[in-house]
Amino acid sequence: MNIRKETRGFTLIELLIVISIVAILAGMFFKRVLVYQELTEKAAMQQVVSAVQSALVLEYGHRMASEMGPVANNITKENPMEWLSRKPANYAGELNTVNPAAIEAGNWVFDKGTQELIYLPNHAEYFVPAKNGVRWIRYHTRLEYESNSRGKGTRVLSGVTFSPVEPYQWSIRESE
Length: 176
Fold this sequence. Notes:
With 176 residues, the chain is of the alpha+beta class. It has one domain. It contains two helices and seven strands. A five-stranded mixed β-sheet has the order 1-2-3-5-6. A two-stranded antiparallel sheet has the order 4-7. The radius of gyration is 27 Å and the shape is rod-shaped.
């Protein structure tokens, strides 16, 4: 009794189709991973900015409550990272002048010359830089004034903000 089962393997075309489908799915997965890496970096950067803004408000309030009002004007010349209880792991320190090409991407640095806190994005496929085309985000501390109702033309110090020097945009969306 000779029973023969016919076994048939994959044809070359079937194998190529399977490999193509797997390659397409892997490519789509890889692109999503890159998008999520950039979203994560953006969120981490925004978290540092929020922490600095909070620390700035606390420092400003402390100076005003301590009758250091005139000293509050110096707050714009100070390194905002010094107000944090713990500096971020990607803070590279202070420099007299900042050359973006010399700083590793994904790091914060304080420019002593311009008194700006600078972030250089690491994953910047969807980052749209400011007018000058440099892939960095520069922040500075700015005093806010309001008009004094008692005197003509006089302004009173009313607060402090930590904001970008120039507009930038991260055109990434979670739905991409």
